[in-house]
Amino acid sequence: MSRINGFVGRRDFLKFASVVGVAATTFSNRFWSTQQIAVADIHPVNPNSISPNEAIKRLLDGNQRFIHQKRQYPDQSLEHLRLVAKAQYPFAAILGCADSRVAAEIVFDQGLGDLFVVRVAGNVVSDTVIGSLEYSTTVLGSQLIMVLGHTRCGAVAEAIKNEPLPGRIGLIIEGIKPALAKIKFTTSDLTEDAVIANIQYQTEKLQESSTILAGLLREGKLKIIGACYDIDTGKVNIIT
Ligand SMILES: [Zn+2]
User: Fold this and answer.
1) How far does the centroid of ligand 1 lie from the alpha carbon of residue 153, in Å?
2) Distance 195 CA to ligand 1 centre (A)
3) Are the CB atoms for 176 and 198 separated by under 8 Å?
4) Interval 1-35: pLDDT, tens
5) pTM
6) Is the Cβ–Cβ distance between 90 and 113 less than 8 Å?
7) Residue 149 CA to ligand 1 centre (angstroms)
8) Interval 51-91: pLDDT, tens
9) Measured in angstroms, how far is the CA atom of residue 29 from the centroid of ligand 1?
10) Which residue segments constitute the domains of the chain, with CATH numbers given?
11) How many angstroms does the Cα of residue 60 sit away from the middle of ligand 1?
């Protein structure tokens, strides 16, 4: 049974429960408590079991390498591909905007299996986004969720305009509008202030909308932070 940052993978848990169930019909409880330890011991330890603060540092260090054109392209070899094909242990989850200029693995200089990335225009929190992030933390063991907005976000700009939009684009904008009521007007640029407000709003919504995430936050097994990517410089700034 693989233990991931104190949690148990669902598939492994079911497999484990099945093994124990069959075993209990044949052997004594004492024997199986011994077997339980043996099964747990043969599985590999999570190589990315790092604290939330270490995860933040790993991301920001990678971003510094990206900015200064010193990327190391870690975890991108064929050998690593084969390694993570067996199991994934992303050290951080990112809720980012779908904008083509904000690719998390590139701007943080990370590789395969390092980041669990959920991307949607305007980095808007929804039920499916929450479910994905619950999976990344509870099952895969990520101890950090970063909500990553970016400067000159088109989705945020559309929310400010507040004009009718075709198809289902308006659904995205509806998810951003509540953030506009919380703009703090700290710069002379309304869109940039709205981008920051949206990052803060989506971060708070994530913290408040999931009992699973709230539980992990209480136990100190998770941090949820907001950050803003500057599309002109490539720099990621922590917002909240
Ligand atoms: Zn955007």
Assistant:
1) 4
2) 9
3) yes
4) 444 444 544 444 344 334 333 333 333 344 334 44
5) 0.83
6) yes
7) 7
8) 999 999 999 999 999 999 999 999 999 999 999 999 999 99
9) 56
10) 3-41 (no CATH), 52-238 (3.40.1050.10)
11) 20
